[in-house]
Design a protein that fits this description.
13 helices; 395 residues; alpha/beta
């Protein structure tokens, strides 16, 4: 079939297998171009390994330090007349590339929140690689079935306390408008924390520890975002921010556990605002990212997912001096985004953006390009007018 992008709202419902593989190869080439990571991880579990920061972490570990990697994700294969999800194709592309270089790479496709998938991962680690020295927790899911209660929790992207009104942009149509989001109720807040907070990360780490599958000195990292005050009502102080607060609570608990069993370390990496499938769904944020990209590209300080993760691994987590932490014990990969002069430029541009001047004042074209690349479109060297085979078995 000929596969073209079909965008509906903040998601593309098609993905191109060759384009996704090319995107993965582009990231691999970037990591290789930066050289090996001395004393990097050797045996890595990535929970949420198929897209975004999770995929970039897996690539950085494998192609930066030759690590064996086990990736856990929940992706849909192709069906009759329907492509697979991009994460499915990404994982195939990564696995083929890793194995071509003699690297161990295995995948578990299923609900990472479930006890069954945890047990499968533990058995695979025990059988194949013995212990892991790094666990990356990078799940992004809209819902979670609790493994103990069976309750289905659904996350929401809402402010807390009062309604919030600000500008947003329809990135597909290029229309700038005002959006008002009603505040979350207590049940919605609790549900969002249950899905996006730290409980599941703790369950994974406790299971690995209980099975003695964590190597001495093992590390674990999860990812968060803070952003500028402009986005705080919908992010830092909203339901997702409360969930991220719980993720930081979990980081402290896991850090204590790792120190007790072998001198390891767990922490949160606060990353830059980027075009991801998750960020595209948050009102206000896509417009902020479009402005931010224009400013940071002009300054020569722009980074994407792979640049951020390669920097985390090479210059923070496995640097000779060790990672640098802020006053709350977090690594701040958002340091370039949060420079005062960058945020002053965003604040100056924000009130002037309209539908008419969107293209001039922001990098909406760059946003759209990065968004489509998430689904394998817009990659150089790919003939998107040619027939493509959507049915690709997991490697």
């Amino acid at each position: 079939m000929i596969i073209k992008p079909k965008v509906r709202g903040f998601v593309c419902v098609t993905a191109h297998p060759a384009g996704c593989a090319a995107h993965v190869d582009e990231w691999i080439s970037y990591v290789k171009s930066n050289g090996s990571i001395p004393n990097g991880p050797r045996k890595v579990l990535v929970i949420g390994a198929s897209t975004g920061y999770g995929l970039a972490s897996r690539i950085s570990a494998a192609f930066g330090s030759g690590a064996a990697t086990l990736g856990v994700f929940f992706e849909r294969p192709s069906e009759e007349g329907r492509t697979a999800t991009p994460g499915w194709y990404n994982s195939i592309g990564f696995t083929k590339a890793a194995r071509a270089e003699g690297l161990y790479a295995k995948n578990i496709n299923g609900d990472a929140f479930s006890d069954e998938i945890k047990a499968q991962a533990l058995e695979t680690i025990r059988r194949d690689i013995g212990q892991v020295d790094l666990v990356v927790y990078s799940l992004a899911s809209p819902r979670r079935t609790h493994p103990r209660t069976g309750t289905v929790h659904k996350s929401v992207l809402k402010p807390v306390g009062s309604a919030y009104t600000n500008k947003t942009v329809d990135t597909d149509k290029g229309i700038v408008s005002s959006v008002t989001i009603e505040p979350a109720n207590e049940h919605e807040i609790a549900d969002t924390v249950a899905v996006m907070g730290g409980e599941d990360w703790e369950l994974w780490m406790n299971a690995l520890s209980g099975a003695r599958l964590l190597a001495p000195g093992a590390r674990s990292v999860a990812y968060s975002y803070i952003g500028p005050e402009l986005t705080w009502a919908i992010y830092k102080n909203g339901t997702i921010g409360l969930a991220k607060n719980d993720l930081e609570r979990a980081a402290g608990s896991i850090d204590s556990m790792l120190k007790a069993i072998g001198g390891g370390k767990a922490f949160i990496s606060v990353n830059k605002a980027l075009v991801t499938q998750a960020s595209s769904a948050i009102p206000v944020v896509p417009l902020y990212i479009s402005i931010l990209y224009k400013i940071m590209k002009a300054n020569g300080t722009h980074e994407g997912c792979i640049e951020q993760m390669q920097r985390l691994f090479a210059r923070q987590m496995y640097a000779a001096t060790g990672p640098s932490f802020d006053e709350s014990g977090r690594v701040r990969l958002d340091n370039l985004e949060m420079r005062p002069e960058v945020q002053a430029s965003v604040a100056r541009i924000w009130p002037d953006v309209t539908t008419e001047n969107l293209a001039a004042l922001t990098d909406i074209a760059g946003y759209r390009g990065e968004f489509l690349k998430l689904f394998g479109f817009g990659m150089p060297g790919i003939d998107y007018g040619a027939e493509a085979e959507p049915h690709v078995p997991m490697a």
